[in-house]
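Researcher: Sequence of FAD:protein FMN transferase follows. Predict its structure.
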Amino acid sequence: MQKRLKRLLLLVIVLSSFAVSGCNQGGIEKPYKESHFLMDTLIEITAYGPQAEKGVKEAFGEFQRMYALADQYDSGSQIAKVNQAAGSSSVAVDADIFAMVEEACQFADKLEGTFDVSVGPLVELWGIGKKGEFVPSDTEITEILPLVNYKLIELDKANQTIYLPKKGMKLDLGGIAKGYAVDKAIAKLQAAGIKSALINAGGTVRVLGTRPDGKPWRIGVQDPRNPDGVIAKLALTGWDTMETSGDYQRFIMKDNVRYAHLFDPRTGKQPREMAAVTMIMNNASQGDIFSTALFVLGVERGLAVLKNFPGVEAIFVTLDGKVITTPGLAGKVE
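Model: Prediction complete. Tokens:
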């Protein structure tokens, strides 16, 4: 379990001299901090202010609520019911589930189909972390691919229903649900009057305001080949979210080849250019989408696509260890 948690802490909070767990010193407030293993990752929330405990507990309530709605492995969840009804009927869903699927489909068009929430059959076929060293054959992948196509998903906004027209189609919100839940959790903290907080949910970090001493939060990006190393550092000034997708989060090794949980939905296979992509932006659910898509697109195409999204920045780490940043991060990455 410890090794697993170590791999899950993909973004490292870089703190200066003040202690976040000690008594008030130098006028700095004592934080309230809580951590839980939810949504298949370790989530830690640190908040400051008189209502910090209340806000943090309500924020965790959002993670639990979202997990209950979006866990495709729970037969009673709404996503599981949508998948079970594939090819037969539409399913009415919660507003948050509808919003996630709708947003994912909208961005899929803008990101050349490299992010696709209908990837469920591929995720199930590969079963990374669940089937030992199993690697499917090209034939098995080819048979599954017709079920992976976000353009087939039918969304009825008026009735808030989702319909998957082909039997065997399956939604997998693993690439958006956690980031969406982070945004919902931040809203709970704000509603409690909290002005300084940080959520670290595995590969997703979102901050609220500045640190209690007025300085910006500084985040370190983990070296994808060294769990104790930091490959880059950045102060979140002008942004509030950092989101990482990497081939070191969940993977198997077979015949000295790494097979990660990130797939190109167009081919059904793992991309072979990137080790990690970190997004720097102002929206956690979209950060989830972008980091996954740019991991598939690679550096050259990823940089070209990002020109259409002003203010969205990225740090690319290639398989051979090169670190490449978008122009907007020039002079800002340590």
